[in-house]
Amino acid sequence: MDTGDTPWWDVITGYLGDVGYDEAEIHQVSLGNIPGTTVDSPSEYGEVVAREIERVADDSGGPVDLITHSMGGLDARWAIEKESAADYVDDLVTLGSPHQGTYVSYVGLVTAGGRDMIPRSTMMDELNDDGLADGVEYTAVWSHIDELIVPSSYASIPEYMFQDAAGRNVNSGYQEHIQLVADRHVFDQYVQYLD
């Protein structure tokens, strides 16, 4: 429900600069201009994200690393796993993304995004039944007190999916949903997996 203009993305840009990334290496994908209006299906956004991943990878001359938040992690997974963007991605970090759905999404049943993020929805089953993409390293960061992912452990990728894929779930501790993006302690836990 946020955009590239929400202030916490500037915080991550600063953290990335602190560890050596050049500002020209950092790209934001914004799926809407007004916060609170990006409530379509992750499958629809995944198509847009896939095109942007390919564009940035082509422009930079190699695969990209992605840092996503909330439903953005599902958008990115859809792009990677369903829209053939895996060839353009090295690492995917998701922060508080409802990989197994969230019961909070029942309050958004009037939106496609809300319906798709219900645990065991058709979209969630399709995303989790087909497996993770080869060649992409996944890091799913989740918190014990994420108020928008209920239960909070549903922000982890199901462990069985790592049998044939590279990655991990990282329990960051006790941060709320937005804190997962802005907290330096959280950043320090996942930045090591971006290479």
Provide the descriptors you would attach to this structure in a database record.
single chain, 195 residues, alpha/beta, Rossmann fold, four-stranded parallel β-sheet, 7 helices, 34% helix, globular
Q: Please, could you describe this protein's structure?
A:
The structure is a single chain. The protein has one domain (about 5-195): Rossmann fold. The protein is about 35% helix and about 15% strand. Helix 2 packs across helix 3 (about 70-80). It is an alpha/beta fold.
Which structural class best describes the helix and strand composition? alpha/beta
> What strand line-up does the widest sheet have?
1-2-3-4
The share of residues in extended strands comes to: 5-15%
Instruction: Specify the CATH architecture.
Output: 3-Layer(aba) Sandwich
Give the helices and strands, then pairings.
Layout (H helix, E strand, L loop, with lengths): L6 H12 L23 H19 L3 E6 L1 H12 L6 E7 L16 H5 L5 H8 L7 E7 L22 E8 L5 H4 L1 H7 L5
Parallel strand pairs: 1-2, 2-3, 3-4
Helix pairs in contact: 2-3
Short description:
The protein has 195 residues and is of the alpha/beta class. It has a single domain, classed as Alpha/Beta hydrolase fold, catalytic domain (Rossmann fold, 3-Layer(aba) Sandwich), CATH 3.40.50.1820. The chain is built from seven helices and four strands.
